[in-house]
Amino acid sequence: MLFLQMRRSALFQFSRHALIVAGTHGEHAMRKVYPDAHAALDGILKDGMVIMSGGFGLCGIPEVLAEAIRDSGIRNITVISNNAGVDGIGLGLLLESRQISKAISSYVGENKIFAQQFLAGELELEFTPQGTLAERIRAGGAGIPAFFTKTGVGTVIAEGKEVREFNGEQYVMETGLVADLAIVHAWKADTEGNLVYRKTARNFNPMMATAGKVTVAEVEILVEPGQIDPDHIITPGIYVDRIVHTPDAPKRIEQRTTRPRPVPAA
């Protein structure tokens, strides 16, 4: 039974992405690589949409795609992201331009603009424990509408949610998350959209790539099909609809910690 459910889920994902590729890409229907981020997002963006943005801290964030979304001018965005970037970088740009109306996030403490807008009542926030957020996204990508977890039981996290007892323990129900658009950052990809992530950048990007109705990936290294060892592929290309090559992606340090150099003896 479990095997059949997994096959049905895989067939659903295949059909969903195949229809998107055939129906929304126009002249790019048979190729996924676009010349720049603006072209890769053309025809997808709209006011009021839900966008997932991958990465952890400043590692693996789709910075170029975020800038293109800022430039589009769309408003009233709901963002699903582990964190909200920092001032002036990544999603911080969309906060500065006040294009985000709601955030579903786990950690937002590094963004002063986020805090200011939230405390002023200008930004809606749905706080989610980090592991729960990851599982909600994974569940959405797998076609699982909801699941139960012990995390958050007896706290404000559980308010208004169904709580059920299993084996004498209380569990709260959390719903899966699906977005209109998922933007992710990968270290390497082939032109078919098979993705490889590197180290910390693997956080949130892989599951978000499966949970977007349309998934757009910015990649640092782009190769031809067959040049990536199949055992190294983390996100299969069937989940990725569009690709933009960003070979000069910045490598930012969120918290730079140094120690004073010893003064040489005279």
Short summary of the structure?
This protein is of the alpha/beta class.
What would your notes on this structure say?
The radius of gyration is 20 Å and the shape is globular. The chain contains seven helices and twelve strands. Strand 4, helix 5 and strand 5 form a beta-alpha-beta unit. It is of the alpha/beta class and 266 residues long. The protein has a domain of 179 residues: Glutaconate Coenzyme A-transferase, CATH 3.40.1080.10.
Question: Secondary-structure blueprint of this entry?
Answer:
Elements: H1 2-24, E1 33-34, H2 37-41, E2 50-53, H3 63-72, E3 77-80, H4 91-96, E4 100-105, H5 112-119, E5 124-127, H6 130-142, E6 146-149, E7 163-166, E8 169-175, E9 179-190, E10 195-196, H7 205-211, E11 212-223, E12 242-245
Helix pairs in contact: 6-7
Strand content: 15-25%
Spans of at least 5 consecutive residues with low confidence: 1-12, 14-29
Full CATH superfamily name of one domain: Glutaconate Coenzyme A-transferase
Distance between the termini: 77 Å
Note the main sheet: 9 strands, mixed
Count of individual helical segments: 7
- Radius of gyration, whole Å: 20 Å
How confident is the prediction overall: mean pLDDT?
87
CATH domain fold name of one domain: Glutaconate Coenzyme A-transferase
Number of strands: 12
